[in-house]
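User: Some background: our group keeps a shared notebook of sequences we're curious about, and every so often someone picks one and asks for a predicted structure to add to the entry. Today it's my turn. The entry only has the sequence so far, pasted here. Could you supply the structure so I can complete it?
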Amino acid sequence: MIVIITSCGSLEEADRIAAVLVEERLAACVQIMPATSVYRWQGAVERAPEHVVHIKTRAALADAVETRVKALHSYTLPELVVLPVAGGSADYLGWARSETIAVI
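Assistant: Of course. Here's the predicted structure to add to the notebook entry:
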């Protein structure tokens, strides 16, 4: 299992991306949290309200999730960071595997 992190400029966009990923079984669960991001973009330091999105999925689905997020996202360069899951509740991880597609 992995967690893919992205961020969106609005709750509506984050919710739309989350719903598509779960409906298409590319993600078992997606969490959306409000945040403030501070970053450098095109030479200037920016500050923006965003919604951080944690996507829980199978490692084998990372490329498919990235492709789908890029297609749905409004940002020119959406954040896509993949974190491996080193462990966790066997019951939860089993559930997450059962809720995502095994082969694409």
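Suggested note for the entry: The mean pLDDT is 96. The first helix runs from residue 11 to 23.
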